[in-house]
């Protein structure tokens, strides 16, 4: 089964411990979403939890070469 995985990478390690997105998680790279079924989507957020203003959608995540759609909210 295929899927599209959305990762969050913290470039500023001081944001890791105080992250509103994943509190208590010490890793600076985190899996944020697994888009495994058609039309699964995920709204991106900054480390403090505020919305980025973009949504990632996987129209057909199980295809051999999955595509994503990035839309501005």
Q: What is the H/E order? A: EHEEEE
- Name the beta content range: 35-45%
Radius of gyration: 13 Å
Category by helix and strand content: mainly beta
Number of domains: 1
Strand order of the largest sheet: 3-4-5
Shape: elongated
Number of alpha- plus pi-helical segments? 1
Mean pLDDT: 81
- Tell me the total number of β-strands: 5
Distance between the termini: 29 Å
Q: What is the percent of helical residues? A: under 10%
Textual characterization of the structure:
The protein has one helix at 14-17; strands spanning 4-9, 29-35, 40-45, 51-58, 69-72. By secondary structure, it is mostly beta strands. The strands form two sheets. Strands 3-4-5 form a three-stranded antiparallel β-sheet, with no helix packed on it. Strands 1-2 form a two-stranded antiparallel sheet.
Task: Furnish the topology, listing elements before pairings.
Elements: E1 4-9, H1 14-17, E2 29-35, E3 40-45, E4 51-58, E5 69-72
Antiparallel strand pairs: 1-2, 3-4, 4-5
How would you summarize this macromolecular structure in one to three sentences?
With 73 residues, the protein is mainly beta. Helix content is 5%, strand content 42%. It is elongated, with a radius of gyration of 13 Å.
């Amino acid at each position: 089964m295929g899927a599209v995985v959305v990762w969050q990478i913290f470039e500023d390690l001081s944001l890791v411990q105080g992250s509103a997105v994943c509190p208590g998680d010490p890793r600076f790279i985190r899996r944020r979403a697994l888009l495994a079924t058609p039309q699964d989507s995920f709204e991106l957020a900054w480390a403090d939890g505020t919305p980025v203003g973009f949504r990632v959608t996987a129209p057909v995540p199980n295809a051999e070469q999955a595509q994503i759609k990035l839309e501005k909210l």
